[in-house]
From TrEMBL:
Family to which this protein belongs: Belongs to the OmpP1/FadL family.
Gene Ontology CC annotation, any one: cell outer membrane
Alphabetical list of Pfam families matching this protein: Toluene_X
Signal peptide region: 1-18
GO molecular-function term, one example from the UniProt record: long-chain fatty acid transporting porin activity
InterPro entries per the UniProt record, alphabetical: OMPP1/FadL/TodX (IPR005017)
Protein name in UniProt: Outer membrane protein transport protein
SUPFAM superfamilies given in the database record: Porins (SSF56935)
The species this protein was found in: Mucilaginibacter mali
Membrane topology (UniProt): Multi-pass membrane protein
Keyword set includes ATP-binding: no
Amino acid sequence: MRKLLLLLLATVPVMAFAQGFQVNLHGQKQIGMGHTGTGLLQDGASVLFNPGAVAMLPENYIQAGVSPLMFKSAFNPAGTNTVYNNSNKIATPFTAYAVWGPKNSFWKLGLGVYTPFGGLTDWGTSWTGKYSLESLDLKAIYIQPTISIKLADFMSIGGGFVYNRASVNLTRAIPLSNSAGADGQAQLSGDGKGYGWNAGVYFKTESGVTVGITHRSKVNTTIDAGNAVFTVPASVQANFPQPNTFSSGIPLPSTTSLGFGFYPTSKWTLAFDMNFVHWSVYKALAFDYAKNTAVLADTYSPRNYKDALDLRVGTEYKTTDKLALRLGGGFASTAVIDGYVTPEAPDANRYYLTAGLGYKLANHLDLDLSFEYENVSARKQTNIESQLSGTFRTNVYIPGLSLAYHW
């Protein structure tokens, strides 16, 4: 039973902060252009994409958007023709930005509230991997006050403090049946917090090309006094003391980005971004339970993630003064090494295609729409801890909408 519990608890909810749960839905204009934005001046989303560009924005902004995310994943156990599908649930990553500064000033202030990590999935209570995961609801909300300063007509810098507020709720089955034959269940839930920063520089070259460089720091997020609730047969309840809590620390990785903007004509904008995500900081998961028994011990589970690369391209064409059309796409490498793929993050290398449009509803009011399709490569794996073996296939569909008021 000791081995059973170590396997059960070693991949608690924070495992979901893998590359597959790095949401990257930070602005509708940017999504429509393949998530490019580091080297562009577009709107208030520069607070996240490049704080250094904020001082160069010609107007002030208040904007908000939402990108409903539909995660469609299937699992085919090794040696069978059976296919299990996750339930149709919709996550709702959101963004909100504000940018303000006196007209023609050399500085601007910004505020961003956004969801860079998260996940919502439900595999049900009867699939073959129920002892690894039944359901997961994960949210990480970053709050970022920002200041940006224009050093010259061709160069500006900026940075912001980041406060992360995270929450998680995970359930999975325990292979201990009651008199009716029903499995036991573990429910792990809690709130966490962490701190970091985001800084960038933006400049215009003599050729007209714009360039941005940013670094979003690692955010060490701590979960204190998370609730661990175990529903098990009465004969073994003593091995699962209730109530019980756990604490843990989770390193959310830093990201270094380089972006370029090209302007062949007054109507066309082309962009390229490259992001380097420093997942190698994620070496292991360690959990400290307030109440231990011979079965329920503190855990240390190696992860040894690798750094990941994300390449993005996008374009915008302004058909009229009121209407802009956008297209983009990209490729993202996985951070999850062989042997560590789980139902919380059935991750693999992926490509994505995006489209969008912007329309001026009024002189100071913009409507932006976006759509993204992601294809995550099929990945056949045997998890080294749970021994769950089979092939994951995943597709993601993400529409999005935002409104921006600027003056």
